[in-house]
Specification:
It is a single chain. Helix content is about 45%, strand content about 20%. With about 300 residues, it is α/β, with parallel strands linked by helices. It folds into 2 domains: about 110 residues, Rossmann fold, CATH 3.40.50; about 120 residues, Rossmann fold, CATH 3.40.50. The protein has a 6-stranded mixed sheet. Strand 9, helix 7 and strand 10 form a beta-alpha-beta unit.
Length: about 300
């Protein structure tokens, strides 16, 4: 199918250098950024029900800027003054730098994975095995927590925020050719908002093993996902659109060839008819001439 309009279930990038904008220019498609889910923070009252005492922990594992926002928000609501001695272990440099919103970066003990992969944060955590680790998470845990479990890291998950469906308004136009998902919650929101989702002829793109599993469980066929050759969702979409365009051009070329052949056959047939008519006319004239001669 021809891809003309793509919905990416994330907030619109703040930088104009986003690879998604490059895809728009390269393929002439329209990309709309519309999250299927939104984040809500737990209240201090709700958090207290988990019986987790934040001051008991000497280190925090941070996997996203959202986790940072809600950690410091809850600390403020709980009237807990975050000590300068607290250590921060971040999944990427980007997440680590976001801490500057709440702490003086150079005066804190901040560690992060150079590659942006949770697996590469494990050796750093292992060097600080005497710390007590707390990991702020959403109510829907992601693959990063699985990495910690697989490496037997001793830590406690603290649910500090939740993901909820970002409902579409009745009558809202939904004319997309491709939908791009990043979380199981996004899949759930889509299937909830659109009960007829199985009948919709759209291309599904999904990132992450848990998102893929949620899509499969919902009966969706995933056509686009990341691979070693296309490690980001933007590059995976790029590969898909490139292949789709090549197939469309091949089909168009085939159609053009068939049209030309059909035209040529038609013209040949017409020429043959004219030739046959001319021969018949000539034969008629010859026969008439012969008849006239006998008279």
């Amino acid at each position: 199918m021809s891809i003309k309009k793509i919905l990416v279930s994330q907030p619109r990038p703040t930088s104009e250098k986003s690879p998604y904008f490059d895809l728009e220019k390269k393929y002439g498609v329209e990309i709309v950024f519309r999250p299927f889910i939104k984040v809500e923070g737990l209240s201090s009252k709700e958090f207290r029900q988990s019986k987790i005492n934040v001051p008991d922990y000497s280190a925090i594992i941070l996997t996203a800027r959202t986790a940072i926002d809600h950690f410091f928000r809850l600390c403020k609501e709980l009237r807990y003054n975050v000590p300068d001695t607290l250590k921060y272990f971040c999944v990427s440099e980007t997440v680590a730098h976001y801490l500057q919103k709440y702490v003086i970066y150079r005066k804190r003990k901040i560690f992060y994975s150079e590659s942006g992969l949770m697996e590469d944060l494990i050796p750093i955590i292992a060097k600080h095995n005497k710390e007590t680790y707390l990991m702020p998470v959403s109510d829907v845990h992601n693959d990063k927590a699985v990495v910690l479990d697989n490496n037997k890291v001793k830590y406690v998950k603290a649910v500090m925020y939740r993901t909820v469906s970002n409902n579409f308004t009745p009558g809202e136009v939904f004319d997309y050719d491709m939908l791009v998902f990043f979380t199981p919650a996004g899949i759930k929101s889509y299937t909830t908002n659109f009960p007829d989702y199985k009948d919709r002829k759209v291309v599904i793109a999904a990132m992450g093993q848990t998102t893929l599993e949620a899509a499969t469980k919902a009966g969706l066929q995933v056509d686009v996902t990341i691979t070693p050759e296309a490690p980001s969702m933007a590059s995976a979409i790029d590969q898909y659109l490139k292949k789709a365009r090549a197939e469309e051009e091949k089909a168009a070329s085939k159609k053009t060839t068939e049209t030309r052949k059909a035209k040529a056959d038609t013209e040949m047939s017409a020429a043959e008819k004219r030739s046959a008519a001319a021969k018949k006319a000539a034969a008629t004239r010859k026969a008439k001439a012969a008849a006239d001669k006998k008279k």
